[in-house]
């Protein structure tokens, strides 16, 4: 029974865990993600050294040796060539053409594979989460940024240039905010942790969102969620605006792919009453006849989805190589 390490690199934190037989073995580990922004680099050595050390520590703490590990799978938020293991562009990390798989293999001495974090999350949901037994699903992760991944007829869609699902950089009409990618009006400047903090700070400058008037800046999405629970109408309206803006973009994707399941993951998905509920209302309003078979749910795996899916990606690649 082979042992794998799954790694989920986020814009804020990196989570990793040991996976055997498709299940986590022991506890997950979380460490801060060291970003190179505002610069750009093809060799984020400081972070990769830290990650390699954390993988070694997790393996030893789990009672194993590094040579017991068959492979490591890593999910990264950005444009990833999952055959070559190269991260061509990860805006929120400040990475450009990083040979991630090669760099980490050199540090660890075991096979390492990389893919877009949303594709690894989709694999996690498909094989171990809400997507088990499904063939057509759409996964959306709302964290530091936002992106999506689709599974069509049981296969994770990559796209011609490994960019399928980058909905975060589709422009929202009337939105003038500048995105970290350099474009103006991206969905990510609204429907993400970065976007919600930006919108909340704008409202505070307008003497709105009174429940957070004394909160330190920048305001966090969790603080906005707490304001919603306290009954602040501006906070509730902010989350509704985010949900409906996201819904407008997802409606086109849904019309094209006709999924039977939509899984919303990331930290923001925990706001069931104030984010997921208005998102469902919007989408079922657009597609009333889909209500009979299209479920819209929060992730049942939480942060584990990316870890499990990354490990599954490594297992698939090793199996394909005949290892």
UniProtKB/TrEMBL annotation:
Read off the InterPro entries from this record: ATPase_NBD, ROK
- Check the record and name the Pfam families matching this protein: ROK (PF00480)
The record's SUPFAM superfamilies line, in alphabetical order, gives: Actin-like ATPase domain
In the record, the note on similarity to other proteins reads: Belongs to the ROK (NagC/XylR) family.
Task: Write down what this protein is called.
Answer: ROK family protein
Species whose genome carries this gene: Cohnella pontilimi
